[in-house]
């Protein structure tokens, strides 16, 4: 599967084929629809703050039931898997460019050996 085929919004899960635009960050993607929603939420939060209303509770799960949390964790897991796949693609590109396992390991805060074991694909 190509990287392009895997690109989905990290927030709503829609593939790039169902949205106008996707912006990429390090291991995350956000679509134009979620950006618009975020702008609305930020504007509403600012208006509530001006009126003296309380900010949303954090962490997010403090207001969720057990069932809501159980329904949410598959999405969290999918994001982790997508982020890991993105990291693997970055490391493969670095290796294709001739970057050493030592430099990759240093960048990730792990040893050269740990980087090789995690990303080389060899056992």
Automatic annotation (TrEMBL):
Gene Ontology annotations of biological process type: protein folding
Source taxon at top rank: Bacteria
Query: Where is Zn(2+) bound in this sequence?
Result: 9, 12, 31, 34
Sorted alphabetically, the keyword list is: Chaperone, Metal-binding, Zinc
Q: What Gene Ontology molecular-function terms does this entry list?
A: protein dimerization activity; unfolded protein binding; zinc ion binding
Query: Which InterPro entries does the record cross-reference, listed alphabetically?
Result: Znf_CLPX-like, Znf_CppX_C4, Znf_CppX_C4_sf
* All residue ranges annotated as the ClpX-type ZB domain in the record: 1-50
Where exactly are the transmembrane stretches of this chain?
none
Q: Per the similarity annotation, which family is this?
A: Belongs to the ClpX chaperone family.
Q: Report what the protein is called.
A: ClpX-type ZB domain-containing protein
The species this protein was found in = Herbidospora solisilvae
Taxonomic placement:
Bacteria, Bacillati, Actinomycetota, Actinomycetes, Streptosporangiales
